[in-house]
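Hypothesis: this fold can be encoded by more than one sequence.
Test: take the structure tokens below, design a sequence, compare later.
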């Protein structure tokens, strides 16, 4: 996290200030423009690394900057080759050496159009980049931004060597920092899920190569990237990788896909599917995944709660932190969603249940109100999770996890779909629900979210979840325990899933000294080493004054 690297935070702060003073003050506009530059930088770096890897391994790799490129508007001309541009000039490492005016014209007129056309006219990326515009207005701003981004990458490389943070979500960090600067939850209730929470959820679900994975409200693609990195790391381990080390949160991750076969890389790339209702976020998500080695991500502009989105029973895994924006227009809600509500936090969970294949698993963050809300839709949803799904875990998170964006109390729901919406339930799917009360996530729970020593409860949650046992996890006074479905579904609890409903508090008896003893101790501390007669007089005087204040003496 940026908060834990002051040098990196300072560089991003400088970049933000340059854009602000340069006339680009809208945070989402600023981050979109910054991301284009980060993408140009990252694209050049990745390409050079792949060339070097190919030379070392003997594998064939064709650079994205080999040959010439003809802008789309000239391809139908009689002699389009007249307009061909040498791709080498489109590299970051080439154009960053240009003079200010020349650089701005080159990036606006050649590099950015090339970027938009990167995957070909028919690609999803090109489709969503069609209306993207490069609006950095001043040559000096572009020069300063390019220099600062070079500095940022130097700090990132230094950080990776010193702290083992080799694969940071660069643009996600920028997005997170910009949102914290304006102290808002972003457009449409968006706020970025901390990377360590994403890693926690991936470790709980353990996605595998070949599984189809979705995030129906993907934002900048953090969960898809988290699933990708988990799978790549597990494949690297199986291939015998020896140099994988835990990061500052105790997670072992890599996004180096060089060890994957071409077939495995193709399977993995086709496994990740994301949707968002914000076109800017779709573009950011596409570039985020491409910067991490996924050449053609499947991220699309769609409202997954609307009537236009008809997918059902498509995915093996869903990872999500959907926006909690309150309510949506009833007329827009997909008719396949049966809950009698317009609350998005309920509709998203129902939709995620519908998106899962039978046997598919979801791990989703919800506001804690979903666990105990008394309305009919709240109860119906919880009943669906308990009866039609195997509700494996309810993990409550401390309210500071999403600061500085929001202080809302949240929980992670982990469930596997057993019965479809139209199936007759012959037997409730859930037998026991595992509850865990996270007290700490390894960071301070204030707006600063500073890194603390240790991992908090993160690694304990993973270990306890995968070793959970209804025969032994019975201590209701502990931070984790299991509750049988029959107790959750009985008339008294009525499908309430709040941890406090089932946890037993331990009250410790505290014995206090008699009031007279406490008073003497206070007097002694006040008057010091006075003689005994003096202490008696002081004590008597204090008692008389107290009684007088209460009107108990004349």
């Amino acid at each position: 996290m940026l908060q834990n690297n002051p040098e990196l935070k300072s560089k991003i702060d400088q970049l933000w200030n340059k854009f602000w003073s340069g006339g680009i003050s809208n945070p989402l506009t600023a981050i979109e423009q910054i991301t284009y530059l980060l993408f140009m930088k990252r694209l050049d770096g990745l390409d050079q690394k792949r060339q070097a890897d190919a030379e070392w391994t003997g594998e064939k790799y064709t650079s994205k900057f080999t040959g010439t490129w003809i802008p789309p508007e000239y391809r139908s001309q009689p002699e389009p080759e007249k307009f061909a541009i040498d791709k080498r000039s489109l590299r970051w490492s080439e154009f960053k050496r240009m003079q200010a005016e020349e650089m701005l014209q080159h990036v606006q007129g050649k590099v950015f159009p090339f970027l938009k056309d990167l995957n070909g006219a028919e690609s999803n990326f090109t489709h969503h980049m069609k209306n993207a515009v490069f609006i950095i207005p001043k040559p000096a701003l572009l020069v300063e931004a390019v220099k600062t981004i070079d500095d940022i990458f130097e700090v990132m490389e230094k950080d990776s060597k010193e702290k083992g943070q080799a694969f940071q979500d660069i643009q996600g960090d920028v997005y997170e920092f910009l949102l914290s600067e304006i102290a808002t939850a972003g457009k449409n209730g968006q706020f970025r899920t901390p990377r360590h929470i994403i890693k926690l959820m991936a470790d709980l679900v353990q996605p595998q190569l070949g599984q189809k994975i979705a995030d129906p409200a993907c934002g900048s693609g953090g969960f898809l990237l988290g699933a990708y990195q988990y799978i790549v790391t597990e494949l690297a381990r199986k291939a015998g990788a020896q140099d994988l080390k835990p990061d500052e949160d105790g997670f072992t991750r890599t996004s180096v896909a060089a060890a994957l076969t071409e077939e495995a890389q193709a399977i993995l790339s086709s496994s990740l599917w994301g949707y968002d209702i914000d076109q800017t976020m779709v573009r950011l998500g596409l570039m985020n995944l491409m910067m991490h080695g996924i050449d053609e991500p499947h991220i699309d502009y769609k409202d997954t709660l609307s009537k236009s989105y008809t997918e059902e029973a498509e995915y093996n895994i869903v990872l999500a932190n959907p926006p909690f924006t309150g309510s949506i227009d009833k007329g827009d809600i997909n008719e396949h969603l049966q809950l009698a509500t317009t609350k998005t936090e309920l509709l998203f969970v129902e939709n995620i249940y519908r998106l899962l294949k039978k046997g598919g698993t979801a791990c989703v963050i919800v506001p804690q109100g979903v666990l105990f809300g008394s309305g009919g839709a709240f109860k119906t949803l919880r009943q669906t999770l308990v009866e039609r799904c195997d509700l494996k875990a309810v993990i409550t998170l401390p309210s500071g996890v999403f600061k500085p964006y929001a202080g809302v109390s949240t929980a992670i729901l982990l469930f596997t779909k057993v019965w479809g919406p139209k199936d007759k339930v012959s037997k409730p799917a859930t037998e026991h629900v595992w509850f865990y009360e996270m007290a700490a996530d390894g960071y301070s729970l204030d707006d600063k979210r500073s890194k603390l020593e240790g991992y908090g409860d993160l690694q304990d949650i993973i270990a306890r979840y995968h070793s959970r046992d209804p025969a032994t996890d019975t201590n209701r006074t502990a931070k984790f325990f299991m509750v049988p479905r029959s107790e959750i579904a009985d008339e008294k609890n009525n499908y309430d899933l709040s941890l406090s409903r089932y946890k037993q508090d331990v009250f410790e008896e505290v014995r206090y000294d008699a009031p007279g003893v406490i008073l003497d101790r206070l007097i002694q501390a006040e008057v010091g080493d006075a003689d005994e007669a003096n202490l008696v007089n002081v004590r008597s005087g204090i008692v008389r004054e107290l009684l007088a204040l209460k009107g108990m003496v004349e």
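Residues 182-189 have pLDDT under 50 and may be disordered. Residues 451 and 516 are 46 Å apart (CA to CA).
Hypothesis status: open.
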